[in-house]
Queue: 2 jobs
Job 1
Amino acid sequence: MTPLKEILTRRIAVEGPMSLAEYMGLCLMHPQYGYYPTRDPLGAAGDFTTAPEISQMFGELLGLCLAQCWLDQGRPSRFVLAELGPGRGTLMADALRAMRAVPGLVEAAELHLVETSPRLRAEQAARLSGAAPVWQDSVAALPEAPLFLIANEFFDALPIRQFVRAGQGWAERVVGLRDGVLSFGLTEPAAQAALAHRLADTQEGDLVETCAPGQGIAAEIGRRIAARGGAALIVDYGDWHSLGDTLQALRAHERAAPLETPGEADLTAHVDFEALALAAPCAHTKLTPQGVFLERLGITDRARALARGLSGAALDSHVAAHRRLTHPGEMGSVFKTLGFFPEGAPPPPGLLT
Ligand code: SAH
């Protein structure tokens, strides 16, 4: 039994079942035994890999996309450049390198990284020391200024709740004990104000997910962009309008059972981009497949330029990385991008309204 499994089992035995959000929050962020605080989960030796770890082109293009937003909005002389959940800091390092080509931009930027894991903060410090980053625990702690923000595979790590339709109410899926073993159960059905709008498009037994922390963060980002300008690029797997159980555990690049090894597997859920867009009081773009977004930003030209300096195995892996990021059968259509921007300003390049 993992140490966290023991803690959770004892606690549920005393206090009763906990919501899935509470379970996910403890598995991912328990200060001593949580998944993120105890490891660097990225890369070949870890449990999963992400777009910026696959190729430098990803961070470069997202950086240039934000740079164009900055130009379009009259080059604010001081702004917050922020990343949520920067992992190893790779994306931001690539973005900053590309953004240096735009005169005056990096000088106007104050870099803020929203990251809770001390372990990953250290990784980020190692890659971004030249840019003097400031770390924050939450979006609310960012200084009030125009906000240009990137979040790649951040919202999928936030705790969700799951509800099963039962008549005109909802039974919540909770984590309890059956014969002393962690197992899923359902509460008695009750009305849920937050799900009133889902009574129209669901049937008895359908499961819907909510992510209150994600909506709160989107609301805070949107408020700042509406009030002071800026833009946000949110990249993740998910869809518009969630339906069905998308909770997933990954360990050593393999699917695992979500209740089997708490604290030792990554737990994620698909992002309901509609809920984020509705929560943000600023303009938003259409949800756009990652492959389409990167093609519109010119990834093929960038890939050709980089290929000229490569040969042999390095060239093969570069070509494979380009395909992996953009091909619909790989990350190109499972991952999607949503942009936030101020009403009346041009949308971020590569995204349509
Ligand atoms: N964006 C990176 C890493 C994705 S992994 C990449 O694309 O490679 C998820 C990241 O979000 C990790 O850095 C993790 O520590 C961070 N994270 C997860 N939940 C968080 C929370 N509630 N607040 C701040 N950071 C969080």
Job 2
Amino acid sequence: MNNGILKILVTEKEIEEATTRIAAEIDRDYAGNNGRLVLLGILKGSIPFLSELMKKIKSNPEIEVMKVSSYGSGTKTSGSVKIILDWQREHIEECDIIVVEDIIDSGRTLSYLCQYLKQKGAKSVRTCTLLDKPSRREVEFVPDYCGMEVPDEFVVGFGLDYDERYRALPYVGVLKPEVYSN
Ligand code: PRP
């Protein structure tokens, strides 16, 4: 185990099982769908989850990415979401979008993105997250697909970072307090 990690919260096996289950749910829900199924990964945290999920979905989804920055002013309560890298594709009206995230915290990022994509004319918009921290919600938001709920601990790994580190861990762990309190 990485020496910044206090304990493993979600194992590689649990991530694999959750991803397999969600892929099957998506295949079931979009069977016979006549639109273009697009997995829209939100950089950077969604990268590992998106790459596992896309391999397991049998209905051959298309892939897009966006990058947004939450809390532009540097405070977690500002609630502002800024688009850093936008969706560039034409004919968004043909697309059934599933926004893919590593984690939902306040709910502001996904809430904003759903509204934004609908305004741009997407055929449909759903959301998918590996982890959900419902205890941290500031706006009401329930994802359509969810791997598992996690408690309000400082989690890193499988896309989640602390100061850009730990994203590449193959599991989700709780960070040792001394790492972020120094
Ligand atoms: C994280 C996560 C979501 C967002 C969730 O991204 O990947 O995009 O925060 O928080 P919210 O529900 O409070 O809006 P972050 O801004 O840390 O960027 P990153 O993915 O590049 O690490």
